[in-house]
Structure formats: C-alpha cells, structure tokens
Amino acid sequence: MNGSRRRGLQALSGLTAWGAVGPAIWGLSACGREAGTLLPPQVTGDWLGPVMARGHRWRDGPTPAHAAADQARRVHVLVVGAGVAGLSAAHHLMQAGVDDLAVIDLDDVPGGNAQGHHMAGLACPVGAHYLPMPGPEVPAVQAWLAEIGVIRHEHGRWRADERYACHAPQERLFVPEPGAASGPEGLWRRGHWQDGLWPPMPPSTAAQGQWRRLADAIAQVRRDLGFAMPTHSAPWTRGHDALDGQTFAHWLDTQGFTDPGLRWSMDYVCRDDYGAGAQRVSAWAGLHYFASRHGLNLPGGAEEAHDPVLTWPEGNGWLTQRLAAPLRERWHPGQVAHAVRDGRDGLTVHTMAAGQPQRWLAQHVVLAVPLRLAQRLLDVPLAPLQAVQPHLAMAPWLVSNLLLSAPLDPRPGEELSWDNVFYTDQGVAGLPPSLGYVNARHQSLAQPVGHSLLTHYWALGGDSPAQELAWRRALHEQPWRHGAEAVCRDLVRVHPDLPAKLLHIDLRRHGHAMAIPQPGLRGHPGFPALMRPQGVQGRLHFAHADLSGYSVFEEAFTHGERVARAIVAAGRRQAPGRVPGRAPAGGPSQPRSKV
Asked: How far apart are CA 563 and CA 86, in angstroms?
C-alpha cells in the first residue's frame, strides 16, 4: 500500500502492539498456543511462493543504483508483469507479428492471481478458479477460448466443451444450527446442505417479495444506465457516478432491502468478486455484479439456470499456462522491477534478478502491474496515476489447499458440489466469514478415489481499511501454523471429521490481491487517461484490471488486448507497411550489446 499503507499502520499502532494482535487474529493465545488446537501436530504444510518475500525486500530495502548494470537487454516491447493482463498483451502482440518482446515478473511462475498448484500429483488452484461463459461484449476472450478449444460456435451461439463446463452438482449452501446466523427461523432445514447459493424461502413470504423487488431494480438500472464487461465498453454516465458515490450497503438500506438472507447474499457476492464486504464496496460494483451478466436469478425460481461456468482442476491456472506457453525464451521469471526511466532512445527498466542488477531497453513498456506498484516504479510521476492513488485499496486473500486421506463424512442434504459455501455471518479466529471451499477434484475425469483435495478461500478486505490492514499484517507476520489452524477451525464447524483425515495444508497469501471497488474509484477521471499511451513519445502503456476498479479475467484480458493494439498501431504509423518488432530471420531477437 506504499505511503498510505504506512500511514494506516502508524494510525493503527496506537491501538495495540502487533505482537499481541497477530496471534489473536488467528484465534491462538499468545501463550499456550497449542492448548485447544484443532490442527493435528503431524499435519505438514507451508506458505507457497516467494512473491511476498521478494516484494517486501524491494519495498523495505535501499533502491539499487540505476547505473549498477552496464549491460542492457534490448527488446522492442517489454511487458512488466505476467498476470492475465500482461500475458494477454504478449499473446496479442505475438499474434500481430511482434515477436521481439520479453515478459518479466517477480514470481517464478506466470499467472499472477490465476496460478495453479499440485498436491500428491493432484491439480488445484491457488487463486481465481473459474470463468463465466463470456458474452458478446468480450469478443477477444471468446476468440481466444475458441482458439484453444474451450468453446465453439454452434447453431448460432457459443457452447462450452463439456470437459471444461462445471460438472453437476455445482453449488450448495450449508445452513447451520440456530444461533450461528441470522435468518427466518422455521423456514430452513438447519444442519443441512441445500442446493444453490441463495438462502431458501417459500414464494409467499415478505423476504421473497424483497428479492423480486431487487431483481426488478437491477433490471431497471441495467436498462436505464447500461452495464457491461469489460466496463469500458459501456458509456459512463451521471447515473453511474451516483451509484459509485455510495456503498452498496447504503444503497440497499435506502431501497428498503432489509431481509437478513438477502443482505447476507449481497455481502457474500461482494466478498467473492471484490474481496471486501457490502459496507465497503460501491453500489455501482454491487449492482454491476448482476447487471453486467444475467441479472438476479431469484432463489428457488425456474429462472435460476444460467450460462455454464468454465473451470478446471487447477482453476484459471489452466488458462494462464496456455497463455504463457508460446512465450518460451521470451519469459524471464524472478525479475523484480524497481525503476522505469523514459528517455530519448526508449524506456529503460531497471530490475534485480538473483541479487544482480539488470537493465532492459525497450521502445515500448507495458506496465501490467497494480497501479500502486506502477506509481513507485516511475522516476517521473504521472498526474492521472498520482490522482488515482488515494482511492485505491487492495484486498488481501488467503487461499488454502487441504489434502485429505479420504473424503469427508457426508452431512444431511445435498451431496458434495464444486462450490461449497457456509451461510453464516460469524467468522472464526477474529476473521470475517470465509467463502467456503471448492472441491478441487470435481472436474477430474478419473474416478475420485483415495485422497480428497479442498481449496478454501478467505477474502480479507473487510468492511473498513483498519480491518484490511490488520489482516494483511497477520498474513505477513504470523507463521504457517497459525493460518492453517484458522482454516481448520472454519471447516470443522461443518466437517467435524476433518482433523482426523487432514494430511497437509499449503497456504498462499495474496497480500494485495485485487483492487476493492470502493466508492469513488471506478468513476475516477484518471482511469480514461491511463488507458491512453503515456510518456515522452507515448511508449508507456498501462494494462491491469485495476483500471476497471476490480479484478476479473475478462477485464484483465481486454486491457492486455487494448495495449497490444495501441503498440501495433503506433508502429504502423511510424513505418507504414511494416510489422513493428518483427525479429530478424532465424527467430526472436536475443539480448544484444550495450546501450
């Protein structure tokens, strides 16, 4: 969070010492930590990935001298960041014939928040785990998915390959015992799993009337204002500004939506897509969740069916692997960028790799990194980028994969589904309610015998900046076992047999996973400016889902495509009839001589 992060931590420091807060957040006392633990001592595991450690060493240490690296690698286009946006930019550039490019990232594996993992030979996600069937607003996504065989055009519409459409049963919701969550008593079978994610209710209740009124309100704003994905494909109006200026919780209050089940559901979708609750997310974002897709499908109604969800055992890591595969020698992992300088001969990017300084010289640089990081990389500040900073907040996430010796004992109600969510407004270990877990073996075509593998998701943006900062600090400072204990405590409320079957837990902490679309962010005038080429000769480009105010695959992918088109167009204006960045005969360009 850079400067604002430090100021926030200083403000919090007066509350209590972090040495005491951290263990309390994870539900373990500062002394006698093993007392009452649910995590068996023989369970193994660790934190995954070097990303946080590398990033913090750069953030907290001295900036390496720019002149330390004498040699420079020359490329026509350098893409900084190998998340979905950076990989999409590289893909579309190569499609256009621009093969003199390189992609660098501080991680060892491409994919950003959409990576995969393996445990006991079984694939699982450590980030985003699905992609809704793309609509006509994202033709670039449709074309690429068709290219790799995920969807096909048949009888006038796009259809998903059945291997990649989410298998049934897709979703279920666990309704806990009385006292564990607020809701209309007597309407639910408590202690049971029910089909779907919306709380059940008979059609004649006042609650159902509120759901119908909300569905009508979403349809109305969809007609009056227009919502699309990607967001920049629809005009932004004063009506959007009005929604962007208030929280979703405030909008629900003013509209009279008070039913506990409805309010829980709206808070859940905000945490699921945006990493923070309805008290923090803007009304524009809360409504966009439904209005940019298929509207609000009423609980228990016939209209509840919708387009298939695309998913894979390793989640969206399956997609990023295929985006990255053609890069080959153009992919350079473990590169921590720390400065970007714009000059007469091009842009120079200074990096550290394996402790050694390096320089890259490029005619175009794509900053496919969070806008917070982009701000710190530039020697010369950009006014629109500076203006956006106060409105940016990043949600931390904890993603955990649990390897079990055998399937969990069934509870009454619906059978194990792909997505398994707990209806509760009470978290554990000082954390907010989790998002439940995904059955990582659900899409496997092999007979699911032997080990079980669950992927547990916790969005930690909270309802306030103070909560976000506290939970990010706990992720960074506390040992693996504290996080594993918290996950175990959350799951054991529904699966008391879990500790006896648990073998291994791998945790992935995403300290700054995604932009939270809090009020005032999406409508900020800095975003349109940043979607245009910047720098001395328009050679600096921004491509990241932050430019949409929130993080989903479609937004990131189309930002990458947009930047690629701009670079190709700029090259053709400078040299009509020639493809810019085409490598000499014999293959892609290699690192060359000094500057």
From this structure: 10
How big is the CA angle at 246 (ends 25 and 376), to the nearest 5 degrees? Answer: 65
Q: Is the pLDDT of residue 540 over 70?
A: yes
* pLDDT tens, residue by residue, 32-86: 334 468 999 999 999 997 665 656 555 555 455 444 556 789 999 999 999 999 9
pLDDT at residue 10 greater than cutoff 70: no
Query: What is the spatial distance between Cα 574 and Cα 13, in angstroms, rounded to a whole number?
Result: 54
Q: How far apart are CA 289 and CA 278, in angstroms?
A: 12
* Residue with tokens 């564990």, as numbered in its chain: 180
Q: Give the closest residue to 568 by CA, choosing from 4, 74, 94.
A: 94
Q: Is the pLDDT of residue 246 over 90?
A: yes
pLDDT digits (tens, 9 = 90+) for 287-304: 999 999 878 887 765 444
Task: Judge contact between 210 and 259, C-beta under 8 A.
Answer: yes
Give the whole-number percent of the chain exceeding pLDDT 70: 82
Give 421's DSSP letter.
Answer: E
- Which amino acid appears at position 571 of this protein? G
Residue with tokens 């309610």: 433
Contact between residue 505 and residue 485 where contact means Cβ atoms under 8 Å apart: no
Based on the number of CB atoms within 10 Å of its own CB, is 70 exposed (0-12), middle (13-18) or buried (19 or more)? exposed
Nearest-5° Cα angle at 234, 232 to 240: 95
Q: Report d(CA 242, CA 26) in Å as an integer.
A: 38
Q: Are 167 and 418 in contact (CB under 8 A)?
A: yes
Q: Which of 164, 250, 289, 244 is nearest to 551 (CA)?
A: 289
What is residue 319's three-state secondary structure? helix
Closest CA to 239 of 273, 283, 281: 283
Distance CA 543, CA 81 (A): 9
